[in-house]
Amino acid sequence: MIGFNNGSYEPVATIGVPVTSLSINRGYGAFEFFEITGGRPFYGERHLARFRRSMQILNLKTDFDDQLEAVVAEVIRLSELQHAYLKLYALPHELNCNGRRQAALYVFPTEMPLFDPMLYKEGAKLVTHCHQRFLPEAKSTNYLPGQFWMDQEADPRVADVLYHNGRTVQESSRGNIFAVKDGAVITPAKDVLQGITRGLVLEMLPAMGILHTEAELSLELLYGADELFVSSTTKHILPVTQVDDKHIGSGKPGPVTCQIREQFMRLKYEY
């Protein structure tokens, strides 16, 4: 596999980050991640737009900000990618900052383990924690809270950690949350990462005849929902049938979730 090392294309195994880097010493950096399907980035233009937006929010710039599309295309070509995932990092190495902080750009392919098919058939479980991501509109390298809490879970059905503020739900550590109540879909609008899969779902719903709203999602509504699902690049549309010790709806993936998942997978395979 060939990756991009801030100006040169090299085998991924030879690419490294200096131990003195601010990204390591302070956990500072922008991140993006998307799927390659049929040799093309799946809605890559949206992911790259979000990457640029994340860099702007985090006050970062690279020498290749206007060349991201070309860099991605070359990594795909050199690695002969058909079905894989691509990671992009903008990592600042120097402590000093005058204006926007200079960052190094890294782009490389990776493989991701598939989620257990049984989770899609039977539904996954989420565990809640009171936490609000800093600058949630930016996709950053800071996954510490979610990773720490996930490492404490022994139940293989636990797919992710769900963040709340004690009153309302925001998002999972690696995805967006949707609730279904009386046939209508609700998803949080504020203090969340604008997920690409989330956006595609919201675009699909009107044509499917499904009402939806972007609004506050209370813990009460979450636990009392008829259906829940999480959207993300790796999970796609993952049904959720349990949150903490509470079963959701019938305890099985619901019809609206299954309909949305089917439509999304059709979109993906026809892309």
What does this structure look like?
It is a single chain. By secondary structure, the chain is an alpha+beta fold. The chain folds into 2 domains: 109 residues, D-amino Acid Aminotransferase, Chain A, domain 1 (2-Layer Sandwich); 154 residues, D-amino Acid Aminotransferase, Chain A, domain 2, CATH 3.20.10. Helix content is 28%, strand content 33%. It has 8 helices and 17 strands. Strands 8, 9, 10, 11, 12, 13, 14, 15, 16 and 17 form a 10-stranded mixed β-sheet that branches. Strands 1, 2, 3, 4, 5, 6 and 7 form a 7-stranded mixed β-sheet that branches. A hairpin with a 2-residue loop joins β1 and β2. The radius of gyration is 19 Å and the shape is globular. The mean pLDDT is 96.
- What is the helix content? 25-40%
The helix/strand class is alpha+beta
Give the oligomer, counting copies of the same chain as homo and different chains as hetero. Answer: single chain
Could you state the order of secondary-structure elements as H and E? EEHEEHEHEEHEHEEEEHEEHEEEH
Give the integer mean of the pLDDT values. 96
InterPro entries: Aminotrans_IV, Aminotransferase-like, BCAT-like_C, BCAT-like_N, Class-IV_PLP-Dep_Aminotrnsfr
Pfam family, one: Aminotran_4
Family: Belongs to the class-IV pyridoxal-phosphate-dependent aminotransferase family.
Protein name: branched-chain-amino-acid transaminase
